[in-house]
């Protein structure tokens, strides 16, 4: 496969400590905006890694849905990831903006947002997504496509007379409260830049790592 032997030159544009702001959330917000403006497809997609009951890592993509004291995403609390997070809140999340030669790696703990926060976000979702949240027991097996479509139709029928679809109790947000955030910028000769923020009490320590 050609892609396995490709060695792209990531250019020489540097990532300098002097260009990085003291608060990594602000730095992240700037990079996310850059990714949006660059035209990255789904710039808010992150690969979320969790640890299951057997201590094994599992990963999947979720979308960043809010940025405040942490990185928020929404999902089914009874899904495979939800069960993993019930037992072990430690997570990692990776944003790969490859066309920009940029990557951000977050490590921290995921905690559920408040029910009110979940409901507020759920209310902004398209009705079809809201119905699907009732229809799908995320991560559980189902015998066929037709069977899950039947479940969707049943849920649609259930809420047909209602102006608003309520939030299912099993659906909501998590906030990843980070302890470490790494900003990576590809450079020529694999001499990449890596700047890491590590939580240090109320502030952040900043270090450069070898590529
Ligand atoms: C681009 C993209 C965005 C996704 N966003 C979400 C999301 O925000 N929430 C979610 O629960 N699943 C999302 N998914 C589906 C998940 O990757 C995954 O299939 C699902 O959450 C079940 O994961 P689990 O069985 O590990 O719990 C997304 C998938 C892709 C490819």
Notes on the structure:
One of its GO terms (molecular function) is FMN binding. The chain is of the alpha+beta class. It has a single domain, classed as Electron Transport, Fmn-binding Protein, Chain A (Pnp Oxidase, Chain A). Helix content is 28%, strand content 34%. The protein contains 6 helices and 9 strands. Strands 1, 2, 3, 4, 5, 6, 7, 8 and 9 form a 9-stranded antiparallel sheet that branches. A hairpin with a 5-residue loop joins strand 1 (45-51) and strand 2. The relative contact order is 0.19. Residues 42, 45, 58, 60-63, 73-75, 79-81, 138-139 line the site of flavin mononucleotide. Flavin mononucleotide is lined by residues 42, 45, 58, 60-63, 73-75, 79-81, 138-139.
Might you state the CATH topology name? Answer: Pnp Oxidase, Chain A
Main sheet makeup: 9 strands, antiparallel
Order of helices and strands: HHEEEEHEEHHHEEE
In round numbers, the mean pLDDT is 95
Keywords summarizing the entry:
9-stranded antiparallel sheet, binds flavin mononucleotide, single chain, globular, 9 strands, Pnp Oxidase, Chain A, alpha+beta, 211 residues
């Amino acid at each position: 496969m050609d892609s396995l032997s490709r060695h792209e030159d990531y250019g020489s544009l540097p990532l300098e400590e002097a260009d990085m702001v003291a608060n990594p959330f602000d730095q992240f917000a700037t990079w996310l905006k850059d990714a949006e403006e660059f035209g990255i497809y789904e710039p808010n997609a992150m690969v979320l890694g969790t640890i299951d009951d057997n201590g094994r890592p599992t990963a999947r993509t979720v979308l960043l849905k809010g940025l405040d004291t942490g990185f928020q995403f929404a999902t089914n609390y009874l899904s495979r990831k939800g069960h993993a997070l019930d037992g072990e809140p430690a997570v990692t999340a990776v944003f790969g903006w490859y066309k920009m030669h940029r990557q951000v790696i977050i490590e921290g703990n995921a905690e559920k947002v408040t029910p009110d926060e979940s409901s507020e976000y759920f209310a902004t979702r398209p009705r079809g997504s809201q119905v699907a949240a009732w229809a799908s027991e995320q991560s559980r097996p189902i015998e066929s496509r037709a069977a899950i479509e039947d479940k969707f139709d049943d849920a649609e029928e259930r809420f047909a007379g209602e102006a608003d679809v309520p939030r299912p109790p099993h659906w909501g947000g998590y906030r990843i409260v980070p302890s470490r955030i790494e900003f990576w910028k590809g450079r020529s000769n694999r001499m990449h830049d890596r700047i890491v923020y590590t939580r240090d009490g109320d502030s952040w320590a900043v270090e450069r790592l070898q590529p």
